[in-house]
Amino acid sequence: MNTPIAIEIVMLLAGLLFVLGIVGVIIRKNIIFMLLSVEIMLNAAGLAFIAAGSRWAQPDGQVMFIFILAMAAAEVSVGLALILRIYHQHRSLDIDKLKEMKG
Amino acid sequence: MILVYLIGLLMGGGVLALLMGQWNNSLPKWIALCTVSTGFILLLSFWIDQSRIMNTLLPETWMMEYRHDWISTFGISFHLAIDGLSLLLLVLTFFLGILAVLCSWKEVKERIGFYHFNLLWILAGISGVFMAMDLFLFYFFWEVMLIPMYFLIGIWGSENREYAAYKFFIFTQASGLLMLLAILGIYFIHGSNTGNYTFNYFELLGSDIAPNVAFWLMLGFMVAFVVKLPIVPFHSWLPDAHSEAPTAGSLILAGLLLKTGAYGILRFVLPLFPGAAQLVAPWAMLLGVIGIIYGAILAYSQTDLKRLIAYTSVSHMGFIMLGIFAFNELALQGVVMQLVTHAISTGALFIMAGMLKERLHTRDLRLMGGLWTQMPQMGASAILLAMASLGLPGLGNFIAEFLILLGAFKANVWLTILATCGLIFSAIYSLRLIQQVFLGASKNLDPIQDFSWREITLMASLLLSIIWLGLYPQPVINTVRPTIKKLEELFLIEKEYGHILINNKRIDSLPEKNVRQVKTELVPSNTHSYVR
Amino acid sequence: MMDHLLWLIPAFPLVGFILLALWGKHLSRFWTAIIGAGSVSLSAILTLFIGLNFLSSTPADGHYSQTLWTWFEVATFIPKITLYLDALSLVFVFVITFIGALIHIYSVAFMAADKDYARFFACMNLFVVSMLLLVLADNLLLLYLGWEGVGLCSYLLIGFWYENPSNGYAARKAFIITRIGDTAMAIGLFVLFYQFGTLSIPDILALTPTTWHEGATITTVTALLLLAGGVGKSAQLPLQTWLPDAMAGPSPVSALIHAATMVTAGVYLVARMHVIFQLSPIAQMVVAGIGAATLLIAGFSALTQYDIKRVLAYSTISQIGYMFLALGLGAWTAAIFHFMIHAFFKALLFLAAGAVIEALNHEHNMFRMGGLKSKLPVIFWTFLVGSASLAALPIISAGFYSKDQILWYAWASEHGNTTLWLIALFGAFLTAVYTTRMLLLTFWGDAKTAVSHYPSKLMTIPLAILAFFSLFAGFIELPHNFGHLTLFSDLLHQVLPETILKAGIHGELLFQLLAMLVTFGGIYMAYILWYRKPQLTEKLKQSAPLIHLYRFWFSGWGFDQVYQVLLVKPVVFIASINKNDVIDKFYQGIAILMVRLNRALSFTQSGSLRWYIIGLVVGAILILSIQVIL
Amino acid sequence: MLGNNFIALSPLLLLAGSSVLIMLLIALKLSHRTIQFASLFLFVLAFSSLFYAHDLFSHPIEPLLIVDRFSLFIMGLIIFSGLIVNILSYIYFEEKEESPKEYYVLLFLCTLGACVLAVSKHFISLFLGLEILTVGLYGLIAYLRARHYNIEAGIKYLILAAFSSAFLLFGMALIYLQTGSMEFLTIGQSLHSLTSLPPLFLTGLGLMLVGIGFKLAVVPFHMWTADIYQGAPTPVTGFIATVSKGGVLAVLLRFFIEIDGFRFKTLMLILISIAVVSMIIGNLLALQQKNVKRILAYSSIAHLGYLLVALIPGSTMSLQSVCFYLVVYVITILTAFGILIILSTKENDADDIESYKGLFWKHPLLACIFSVALLSLAGIPLTAGFVGKFLILAANLQAGFWLTAFVLVISSVIGLYYYLRIISKMFSGRGGVLLKEKRAYPIFYLISVIVLLTLTLFIILFGTYPSGLMYFVAYFQFK
């Protein structure tokens, strides 16, 4: 058996990833990168679930992680389709150009 | 059951008018006229019937009651009842209702069906307000009359109608919601005290509320009523609404809608929170006096005929506030008289403003003048109405104002003296009105028709009632006497109670007991024998 | 039996009013005249009938009364529509109906050319009704009805020729100024009600001596409040300014309302409520003081006017000042006597002046009249009689007897003193001066304007009747050193107390001689100034101090200007700056605030996704920090 | 036991099966009309299966789901909304350029997701339900893919939803870490003895609130609402406003009650402030808005605020008032969007306020229906909205929450203005730009109008005689 890594450290990593993801979403202008950053956040959450599952020695955390993966995949597929349309319409992936509706 | 029929009649008539209006333009008028007249005749016959009893034996306070469960989980019932005050105001409602239909006979030319629908539904809402003895139901009717009124102003009003309609609606709605909070407050306090959760007016009368809570709840009620009346800092919706509304709208606003505020104070604020009412009485009277003078000064400066009349209403409503919070029979009778006479005289002035607008296509006083030459009949009626408005003895308004002032004099000498000075201002603006419109050199050279026969009927009925009320108001006084007496009794005892309350001493059990006793006397004792 | 006919006195003109008001447009002039003048004449005849009956068999309790119906009944306040006729009201009713009828008859011819013939008679009839109710009222509320009713009619008739805005202004001024007094009076009624629990005049008068002490504050306050009402109606200081302007109305109106009857309502009120005044020496003094000051001030103003009707108006104010003086002196009967005599000669003067004005094609300016002595002989002679009475020409005129009585009491009565007497005497001198001036300017000298109309019989006969009374009505009350006849005061002493004289006063004759002297002096002075040496007058007028004085007097001692600055301007100013209602601004402010907030918030809805994400994150941080902090 | 499970889950199974069935039907190249009718039938079937499932009293399917009266009630509401949206969709999509058939598949999936939310009692099911709903919505929002607004709305929603889901998930993970369970009840039990919440749990809860708050579109997570409402096809907007919010609110309610969140002051404070701010800002934002869809978006922010206010006292009456108001809100908002759908044209959604000018004089019936809906949203008596607000106020005052009640009153007064603005536009002079009747599909037009009319009658019925609905709500009340 490997020496168990302290749960706090894993959570810290997860938290770090999560914040990284947030920052990524905020500062990136390219839609694809925003999507990517969101994926990072989702994975951070997944990591947290796994850590929590291991703390309670339950499979639930890992189950949840698999669901998250599936959902992320679905999301990305829809997202990419939309991004294609956007590129088709705007010839750009700059999110700041998508401001037609406001007020 | 008559009470339910009355409301049903109006609502049904309204729907019928709306439907008939789709394919015929004159049918809705006749439907509306028939509906309101039927109601009027019903009520009048009942009143005459009752007045016989009134003169012979000691009259019972409550004349008729109808009750049916509505939302029983909340203790809400469809509970209508009338006493003299309600009856009188109902008669007034239907009387002015007939006139409202008549005065829009020619004025309204499009969407006639919808117009009369709104008109009748306003009347239904107002009638409901005057009859409801369940606080929820009261609030319900209180709001029901707003929407059609909003449409009436917003669709058939003059140039600035939308602004006026919004203003009217938002003012009344805001204050109404505060009242709803207060209603709920008293509901839960009563419920938690007695375990009987109910909106029934008669049961809530006996509820014990801690003085400081009662004060806030009373303010909740007062806000709604004071905005409706309106009393001075809350009056600013009124000139706009009155001046933009079509004639019938102004008539109903001035004649009836404002009266619901006064009715609310008499029916709910005073009996439910006698102690708190006592506390605020000096301030309320002060507001009333400020209203009298402020309204009069503003009325003087207006150049728009209908705005001028609207501000006179503000001034006259100040008298009502003054009278109500004097808490004695003289003043309260005066208040009721003022309700009736102001409705008639100001309503008539608005009708006249409408007639002038029809003829001259303007409400601007600066463009009028010298109309007497062409319209002596209208001029004479206008003078009579202006005299009523300035409180000339022999006309109903004088008796109202004199009684109010006489009663208020007992309660507060200096405020009454100030209020009496309002009579001077009322002379100033009334005479200015006459001068600007009818006297002076004629500015209008086109031939103008004097009264038509329809208009003569309209005016004559109003003028005769105002003279009748000025010379022999006893029927009105007799009708409301039981109600007023009960109110006054409440305050005769409450006076000690309030005094103790102000001094923050422990309330003695004796006066409190008396209060409870009187409060329960307000509840119909053997109404069942009187239910018809 | 006569009790039951009482209601008919006001009922005749009331019916007349109703008929004329409703169908006046469709009636011919003939029928209008019949109804208008006829109804009042019927009242007059009925009054004579009832009056004779009253005099011949005075009822035991000294009055007739008739309750028509209970006006209303609230709590303990039960005013009734009750008519009450005693000696005092009989005098007034007589004057109102009798002179009223004469003036109505005169008006039939005078107003003949006017297009609003029916309206005129309707208003006049309504006035007579109101005035009758005022004097016949059994309670103060009904009196107040009449009181305000006459105010309304006065308003309507002053502004009768409504096309001219200045007439309308005069009418409103009259109404509003009298209303100020009325308001004070209304407050007086409130006080009386709470003191006595009733507004019935006989009850109050009966209760007062037992309820109130002499000189108590409440008594004085009440008396002064009532007095304020009287001062407004009777155009006494400081509310006198409306009456000269009120001359804008037709001359018969001025004669009936603004000379003979309505303006003396204040006198009636004080006399009616004399018990209260008797209990308050201060109030008594104020009444006398107001009367004295008014008679002097108005006398000076009358001296400077050029409009014949304004002279008469100021003279009316001045003469009512005499009546108030008499009331203040406790010379109740003297006041009422002067009222009656004044009603005769002043109505006469106004009607005659009206005839002159009409004859000269609506010329009001006396300086453009002149020489009418021969052209309008009837007018001249009647006017002369009236003037003699006004100037109190000794022995032969009725005015002498009534005024002399007041002068005598100013000296001799309990409340009298030298100052008051001197003022009254000087007033008499002024009266003589301005009366003579008026007479000279109008009827002597050269004709400056041609006569275009000649008065008809319908106009001259009433003048003659009035002239008769102006000369001979004085003989029913003669001084005790000169015939000693007290028919009039005997009658009134049923109601009003006797005048108490100071102990040990003698020499009435001396005072009478002094009064005569003053009168003749005045006449002579006027003769010098405006007939013999008019250029001297002109010169005097131009001299520096006098011209200012002249203007000051001419403008009615600057009261109008003072009121304009102190009262009218501020109110108008406040009204005009606040036309759009400051309070409304507050609500508009709320609305504007909401709109601003809306704009600011809309700005956050920028459409930028990254902005939204930042919003989300900020929200998350906020929530987390709230949790951390708490 | 197993049979019972099937009975209990029958609505979910039916919905899932329907989506597959519709997919197959599409493969058969059936017409739009057939598919519409088929899906209508399937919705009705799913709805009626609720009555079948109703016989079971509180049937848990361990560990994820529970079918009890409350969840049945919410499911009923969701499926009902789906049904209405389904009916109204035909006339909207038929004239659009996109083939509308796949739309129905997504509709079923989203409804399924919302229903799963309603029955979930576990984080996993919560997450699953939420994602089924959300992913489906991406497709629905961007359905008219040739249109800029649709795509823009789609991508905005996608990124924001995924972003907020991450918050939700991270929060769940933290709570799981703290309590060792993902089942609501067990979480609640582990907190039972505590008087204040542990910080980890609090943080987790806070993050979860971000996710939930986003879905409910309450301030400060509201900014997407207007854009998505405006960009999405109108039936989808109606769907978001009702189904998605209803499902999320149901799960929030269940979670809150299971962990008995009303005990914790901090939590309540956060909820109260969210509610208060939502009411005020939502109404303020709509004040001068000229786009009707955006107005309704902002108004829905405020209405979610009202619903949260209703939730705050946590008493029986408050839960009843939440349910009552939810029903009222759903019916009302569907009616409003129904009108928008009927008035939309091929090119334009009827979302410009100017185009409503004089509507009353052209289509009195539609204008009346719309007015009733707006008045109900404004909370004017005679309409159900008033009774709903009344109940909320009553619940608050009963528990002594005067402040929230007061703010509710004030904000609804502000809100009054923009509802009135639309109404007075409809009743003002003749004119108006577009708004022609859809002559092309008379049957569906008629059906739609009849449906809206029925809904309107319900609004008025609940407004004048609310006892029935009150009993109903009390019967299906949580626990």
UniProtKB/TrEMBL annotation, chain A:
It catalyses: a quinone + NADH + 5 H(+)(in) = a quinol + NAD(+) + 4 H(+)(out). Its EC number is 7.1.1.-. It is a multi-pass membrane protein. It is an enzyme of class 7 (translocase). The chain crosses the membrane at residues 6-27, 32-52, 64-87. Keywords: Cell membrane, Membrane, NAD, Quinone, Translocase, Transmembrane, Transmembrane helix, Transport. GO terms for molecular function: NADH dehydrogenase (quinone) (non-electrogenic) activity; quinone binding. GO terms for cellular component: NADH dehydrogenase complex; plasma membrane. GO terms for biological process: ATP synthesis coupled electron transport. PANTHER family: NADH-UBIQUINONE OXIDOREDUCTASE CHAIN 4L, NADH-UBIQUINONE OXIDOREDUCTASE SUBUNIT ND4L. NDH-1 shuttles electrons from NADH, via FMN and iron-sulfur (Fe-S) centers, to quinones in the respiratory chain. The immediate electron acceptor for the enzyme in this species is believed to be ubiquinone. Couples the redox reaction to proton translocation (for every two electrons transferred, four hydrogen ions are translocated across the cytoplasmic membrane), and thus conserves the redox energy in a proton gradient. Belongs to the complex I subunit 4L family. NDH-1 is composed of 14 different subunits. Subunits NuoA, H, J, K, L, M, N constitute the membrane sector of the complex. This is NADH-quinone oxidoreductase subunit K. It comes from Olivibacter domesticus (Pseudosphingobacterium domesticum). The gene is nuoK.
TrEMBL record, chain B:
It is found in: Endomembrane system; Membrane. GO terms for molecular function: NADH dehydrogenase (ubiquinone) activity; NADH dehydrogenase activity; ubiquinone binding. GO terms for cellular component: endomembrane system; membrane. It comes from the Bacteria. One of its GO terms (biological process) is ATP synthesis coupled electron transport. Keywords: Membrane, Transmembrane, Transmembrane helix. The keyword Transmembrane helix applies. Residues 132-424 form the NADH:quinone oxidoreductase/Mrp antiporter transmembrane domain. It is a multi-pass membrane protein. Its main location: membrane. The chain crosses the membrane at residues 6-23, 30-48, 76-102, 114-133, 139-156, 168-189, 209-227, 248-270, 282-301, 308-327, 339-357, 378-399, 411-431. The keyword Transmembrane applies. Belongs to the complex I subunit 4 family. This is NADH dehydrogenase subunit M.
TrEMBL record, chain C:
The keyword Membrane applies. One of its GO terms (biological process) is electron transport coupled proton transport. The chain crosses the membrane at residues 6-23, 30-55, 81-105, 117-136, 142-162, 174-196, 216-232, 253-270, 282-304, 311-329, 335-357, 378-401, 421-444, 456-476, 509-531, 609-629. Its main location: membrane. GO terms for molecular function: NADH dehydrogenase (ubiquinone) activity; NADH dehydrogenase activity. It comes from the Bacteria. GO terms for cellular component: endomembrane system; membrane. It is found in: Endomembrane system; Membrane. It is a multi-pass membrane protein. Keywords: Membrane, Transmembrane, Transmembrane helix. It holds the Pfam family Proton_antipo_M. Residues 71-121 form the NADH-Ubiquinone oxidoreductase (complex I) chain 5 N-terminal domain. Residues 137-431 form the NADH:quinone oxidoreductase/Mrp antiporter transmembrane domain. This is NADH dehydrogenase subunit L. It comes from Olivibacter domesticus (Pseudosphingobacterium domesticum).
Automatic annotation (TrEMBL), chain D:
InterPro entries: NADH-Q_OxRdtase_suN/2, ND/Mrp_TM. It comes from the Bacteria. The keyword DNA damage does not apply. It holds the Pfam family Proton_antipo_M. The chain crosses the membrane at residues 6-28, 35-52, 72-91, 103-120, 126-145, 157-177, 197-224, 236-257, 269-288, 295-312, 324-343, 364-387, 399-420, 441-465. The keyword Cell membrane applies. It is found in: Cell membrane; Endomembrane system; Membrane. NDH-1 is composed of 14 different subunits. Subunits NuoA, H, J, K, L, M, N constitute the membrane sector of the complex. PANTHER family: NADH DEHYDROGENASE. HAMAP family: NDH1_NuoN_1 (MF_00445). Belongs to the complex I subunit 2 family. This is NADH-quinone oxidoreductase subunit N. It comes from Olivibacter domesticus. The gene is nuoN.
